Amino acid sequence: MSVLVSGSIAIDNVKTQKASEENLLGGSASYAAIAASFFSPAHIVGVVGHDFPQEHLDLLKSREINLEGIEVSEGETFRWSGEYMEDMNERETLEVALNVLESWKPSVAESQKGAKINLLANAHPINQHDVIDQVLEGPGFTIADTMDLWIQISRDELERLLHRIDLLVLNDSEAKLMMDTSNIVAAGKQLREMGPKYVIVKKGEHGAMLFAENDFFMCPAFPLDDVFDPTGAGDSFIGGFAGYLASLGQQEYSFDNLTSAIARGTILASFTCESFSTHALQALTEEKFEERLQQFRDYCDFS
Amino acid sequence: MSVLVSGSIAIDNVKTQKASEENLLGGSASYAAIAASFFSPAHIVGVVGHDFPQEHLDLLKSREINLEGIEVSEGETFRWSGEYMEDMNERETLEVALNVLESWKPSVAESQKGAKINLLANAHPINQHDVIDQVLEGPGFTIADTMDLWIQISRDELERLLHRIDLLVLNDSEAKLMMDTSNIVAAGKQLREMGPKYVIVKKGEHGAMLFAENDFFMCPAFPLDDVFDPTGAGDSFIGGFAGYLASLGQQEYSFDNLTSAIARGTILASFTCESFSTHALQALTEEKFEERLQQFRDYCDFS
Predict the structure, then answer these.
(1) Quick one: pLDDT at residue B251?
(2) Sign of CA dihedral B144, B28, B265, B178
(3) Contacts of residue B66, Cβ cutoff 8 Å, sequence gap at least 6
(4) In chain B, what are the helix, strand and coil shares in percent, each to the nearest 5?
(5) Distance separating alpha carbons of residues B271 and B31, to the nearest angstrom
(6) Residue A138 above 90 pLDDT?
(7) Domains assigned to chain A
(8) How many inter-chain contacts (A to B, CB under 8 Å) are there?
(9) Residue A216 to residue B263, Cβ atoms within 8 A
(10) Residues of A in contact with B226 (CB under 8 A)
């Protein structure tokens, strides 16, 4: 079983207090697809410009990701430049240029329509609706990520989306913003009542919470005493989540399966934080992954 | 086995956006001793003034807490007034009057010196040293809580204290302040290197982390979608932790025992958040406690 990942594909310039690098592979779909491909075949739907580095496409190919849904447009690729402060929770966006993303109409390739999990990585809700329209009757499980910007400027489309997906994933600050409450647990519960069967609230270094009708799960983040670059950690988390879920090869998505998938996504996100871009994800071996997963289990264990 | 709890005993006036109440039992030692007494016999060392309500003393007595270490002084009891904002993480101190606490010299009663766990609840480090001086050779395990104020104005005494205790407990913001880092994991590790065998970093609604030389444990907080009054949650946490540890009746404090104790402290803290003062702790039955602990286990479980 495979995962269809749609969303942004970007060229990032990232600066931290220790290092900086330009022309990095970025974007929600890039991180999510590479993370998903650690567990399952992945397909990507997005848009890039004429300036998009071939090496980035080669990387996606090397992960055996189906690229037929990538449109290569005449304009320039979506670009994001940001700087992290000494406190890695504080980030300043230095520059954003939507470029080809602005007029993008996602187009899912025929070869991609068999995917059983539809991961709508962070993108404009209208783009997310577009993808659902093209794969109706297809995927067995639809996940949507979102962000503060869409909550603010595209709330109607986002609310409409909530009735078309199985799982909504968003940050704690975004959940609180959307539900106008300062309590994360209340926000998660209220969001679930707006349509999706499940809601995941991501809390960054504090882990994640999963809300279901009669069930609840919470798990910490993997502890890192040196975060190198957290860009894309949330996208890697949900990509890993979706990829692991697909790898289980079931049409039924049980709550227990979702909790297992959250643990796996958490581990992938921790690796993403240890390098620029998707470098650590690319270098990740099954052995290193399993070792950290076991460590994570030990760290969370009490009797 | 029993727990010796020293620290502040206060009269609190608390205001939230929903309710307010005056002349509540407050103070680090009050919460911690009542929480500890849920699992084990407890002794309390502190000071109150002539104005201290008899009902508060009666409550402590009803928990079979040994009060011989409470000095009743001529002045007025330590008072704290605070207000919680709509976001319960934001608290404004409206008034603090140290009163009898200012010149307090803790005096551990002879009948209290057999306690095996010495919990130095939040108080001036000099008071904490005083207690250790009086029970030298006594307790098998010494725990100290602290706060930002002592880090700022009494750092030398605090650093000296770190060599005399087994476990330091403090908030994440305090750990970061003390180690001058924005990374909680790094702060915890560095604090451990300053003396104590163990460090617990409390993260409020995000749970807690335990640092040991070659071991690590983390656990979320119990999820509450309606926090009524979080005053004393951290004190209840560490009081419950110490009480549970004492109840195990072992002189050896294994890492696994500490993680079990953290889970129990977490549950008691969650109850404290559901009422003013120690009201919910007082009303807590073993059945309600066990039910929530099982729920907590389920919430944290993944495969």
Answers:
(1) 65
(2) negative
(3) B2, B41, B42, B43, B44, B109, B111, B112
(4) 40, 25, 35
(5) 12
(6) no
(7) 3-300 (3.40.1190.20)
(8) 87
(9) no
(10) 183, 186
